[in-house]
Amino acid sequence: MKKIFFKILVAIAVSIMFASCSYPEDNTSDNNGTSNNGGTSSSSGGTTAAVQSITILNNTGYSIGGVWIKPSNSTEWGSNRAGSISNEQSRVFNFSQPLVAGAYDIRLRQNSSSGNIFIKYKVALSNAVIVTFEASDLTDESNHPTINIQNRTGVSFNSIYIKPSSESDWGADYGSLSNNSDKAVTIPIPSSSYTTFDVQMRS
User: Fold this and answer.
1) What are phi and psi of 5, to 5 degrees?
2) Cβ neighbours, 10 Å, residue 192
3) What pLDDT is stored for residue 195 in this prediction?
4) Is 14 helix (H, G, I), strand (E, B) or coil?
5) Fewer beta carbons within 10 Å, N or C terminal of the chain?
6) 66 has which bridge partners?
7) Which residue, 116, 97, 124, 94, is CA-closest to 30?
8) Within 13 A of 80's CA, how many CA atoms are on the CB side?
9) Residues 6+ apart with CB under 8 A from 180
10) What percent of the chain is helix, strand and coil (3-state, nearest 5)?
11) Under DSSP, is residue 137 helix (H, G, I), strand (E, B) or coil?
């Protein structure tokens, strides 16, 4: 088994386009929640080491059919966590495996498979925090960097892993790449968050 490791600056074969864990949860709705907008304060008044639940308040003007939550340094969104969240309604997400308090990205989609997308990046999650999504959080995800990988090694690869250079977790497998082929991979992290990435190819 061969392993070839690449550390690639974004400047090399990278075009910046401006245009996960999945935990089971029990969900309840309550449209009387209060907003903190930035997602940085807790209803209990402080930050705890374990995040057992958060509340998402939907003020986007649309019914939401999909919710994704990931650590901000992760290159994968993971699984859709939600049932629906009607406009001006909220949903409580109770995590059977508590999250570690820290920075997370939260993504809402109007429908589970299509529709408008709303994202908040680097939300400081603490236990019982209320995160409010507004119409201004609408995004087309065009600010995500795209890394163009060219394989000229003479070897075909079974898997590709990409991560911010400052992080240790390789994250998701972006698939195979045969010799003398090219592949463009879009990373779900804003280009303003990280400027260099590591790329690992495995055969």
Assistant:
1) -110, 135
2) 11
3) 84
4) strand
5) N
6) 109
7) 94
8) 13
9) 151, 152
10) 0, 50, 50
11) helix
Show the tokens assigned to 33. 């929640």
Among the ranges given (39-48, 124-133, 142-151), the one the predictor scored with the smallest mean pLDDT: 39-48
Q: Check residue 158 and give its pLDDT.
A: 96
pLDDT of residue 40: 39
Which residue's entry shows tokens 């935990």?
23
Q: What string of DSSP letters covers 107-132? A: EEESSSSSS-EEEEEEEEE-TTEEEE
Contact 146, 188 (CB under 8 A): no
Summarize pLDDT for 3-33 with one digit per residue, the tens: 434 433 333 333 333 233 333 344 433 444 4
CA distance 73 to 125: 14
Query: Rounded CA gap, 92 and 83, in Å?
Result: 11
Check if the beta carbon of residue 133 is closer than 8 Å to that of residue 118.
yes
Average the pLDDT over 136-154 and give the result. Answer: 92
The two structure tokens encoding residue 163 = 């991560």
| Chain mean pLDDT for the chain | 79
- Here the tokens at position 82 are 């939600």
